[in-house]
Amino acid sequence: MWCGNFLIHGVTASRDPFVLVPEVDSETLLANACESLASASVTLSDFAGLMEGPHRNTLLGIQQVVMLGELAVNRALEPANA
Hints:
The protein is an alpha+beta fold. Helices cover 59% and strands 12% of the residues. The protein has a 3-stranded antiparallel sheet, with no helix packed on it. The longest helix has 25 residues, at 53-77. The chain is elongated, with a radius of gyration of 16 Å. It starts with a strand and ends in a 5-residue tail after the last helix. 4% of the residues are buried.
């Protein structure tokens, strides 16, 4: 089954339901992680906009942590760090 840019195999003998194909290179995995984190960040930000008070603050805090993860992945993708 294809998911984004990755071929995912179902695994029945493992506790993990899916594994990535070993041939997928690290740069591709990092790029996909960056896109996933960016999407999660936007989703959290949008959802926080619907909330008020402490719930809004909690969502914005989580969104900030996700955004920092995205920045870290972007840094890992920079050519100087390859």
